Amino acid sequence: MPKVKLDAIDRRILKTLQEDGRITNVDLARGVGISAPPCLRRVRALSEAGYIEGYHADLNDEALGYGVTVFALVGLHSQAETDLKAFESLAESWEVVRECFMLAGEIDYILKIVAHDWDEYQNFLTSNLTAAPNVAHVKTCLTVRNSKHLPGVPLE
């Protein structure tokens, strides 16, 4: 992937796309102060350079019937690279696991789990997560509410 040196216009393009991935190229160009053809070239170059990984819709979990969000702190018996990769592959296969971060410290991973209800979550916990190979312990934190949700990164 060729890297593009980001200038102020590129940063404004990225910030705008992060806030509204459905914006038209014409509106994007107008918003960042350039014409449409060079704006489209810049967006393509930013994508090819790996700065833009994709586009998605931000869905309302509660409206879709997902009422339970839990963070699970997972400790493994072994931290050998092959065991870490095996756990990450397993986490990737679980649809209810929406995010998986490897941590430094006494906890190896934190998982964001979204389920329809408490029973679905408990079934996943006992049948999948705690029963998974190499899992030593799991501590969970049930969320009460989400007061801030900003996907992406802070761009000036």
Describe this structure in words.
The protein has helices at residues 8-19, 25-32, 36-48, 81-93, 118-129; strands at 68-76, 97-102, 109-115, 135-142. The protein contains five helices and four strands. It starts with 7 loop residues before the first helix and ends in a 14-residue tail after the last strand. The chain has 156 residues and is an alpha+beta fold. It folds into two domains: 8-48, Orthogonal Bundle (Arc Repressor Mutant, subunit A), CATH 1.10.10; 68-142, 2-Layer Sandwich (Alpha-Beta Plaits), CATH 3.30.70. The radius of gyration is 20 Å and the shape is elongated. Strands 2-3-1-4 form a four-stranded antiparallel β-sheet.
Topology:
Blueprint: H1 8-19, H2 25-32, H3 36-48, E1 68-76, H4 81-93, E2 97-102, E3 109-115, H5 118-129, E4 135-142
Which terms summarize this structure?
single chain; 156 residues; alpha+beta; Arc Repressor Mutant, subunit A; Alpha-Beta Plaits; 2 domains; 4-stranded antiparallel β-sheet; 5 helices
Rg, rounded, reads 20 Å
In CATH's first tier, which class of the largest domain applies? Alpha Beta
Strand content: 15-25%
Poorly predicted residue ranges: none
Total count of strands: 4
Helix content bin:
25-40%
Kindly report the CATH topology of the largest domain. Alpha-Beta Plaits
What is the oligomer described by this structure? single chain
Strand order, main sheet: write it out. Answer: 2-3-1-4
- The CATH architecture classification of the largest domain is 2-Layer Sandwich
Count the DSSP helices: 5
Domains, number: 2
Largest sheet: 4 strands, antiparallel
Shape: elongated
Derived structural class: alpha+beta
Mean pLDDT across residues: 95
Give the full name of the CATH homologous superfamily of the largest domain. Answer: Lrp/AsnC effector binding domain/regulation of amino acid metabolism (RAM) domain
H and E order:
HHHEHEEHE
How many angstroms separate the termini?
A: 24 Å
